[in-house]
């Protein structure tokens, strides 16, 4: 209950849905980790948690699953039910925040890449260009 004021409306809804599913599972003496009604709530809870930790080096499917007390496979299934993967979600969010940083700051591309936990500047540059159609330096030059 202490965390409730810190949750977004989507987080409150995810927590409510998860509690309903948990109560249902306890009532029926079982838990189906493929339950499609639970998947959106679990995926949203993972997204909320990931948003808070996008700059953390240890952010991963395993870390999110551990924090949410589910298996990695259960978490992956929850994301797959929505047509995405945990890894892709994290990468897309990091790329988006890096894109925003390129427009709003004078940091070097390598500093932005390191902050958002890309393995190195060349990996970041390839990923950025694939996603946005421009190299990070070109994007920064056009948008600052």
Automatic annotation (TrEMBL):
Pfam families linked: HTH_18
UniProt keyword terms in alphabetical order: DNA-binding, Transcription, Transcription regulation
Domain HTH araC/xylS-type: 44-142
Name the UniProt record assigns to this protein: Helix-turn-helix transcriptional regulator
The organism of origin for this protein: Streptomyces milbemycinicus
């Amino acid at each position: 209950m202490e965390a409730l004021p810190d949750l977004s409306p989507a987080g409150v809804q995810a927590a409510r849905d998860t509690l309903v599913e948990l109560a249902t599972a306890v009532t029926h003496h079982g838990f189906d980790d493929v339950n499609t009604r639970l998947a959106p709530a679990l995926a949203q809870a993972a997204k909320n948690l990931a948003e808070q930790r996008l700059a953390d080096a240890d952010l991963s499917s395993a870390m999110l699953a551990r924090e949410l007390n589910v298996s990695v496979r259960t978490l992956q299934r929850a994301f797959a039910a929505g047509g995405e993967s945990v890894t892709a979600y994290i990468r897309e969010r990091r790329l988006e925040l890096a894109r925003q940083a390129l427009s709003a700051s004078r940091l070097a591309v390598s500093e932005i890449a390191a902050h958002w936990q890309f393995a190195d500047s060349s990996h970041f540059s390839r990923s950025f260009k694939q996603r946005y159609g421009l190299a990070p330096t070109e994007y920064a030059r056009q948008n600052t």
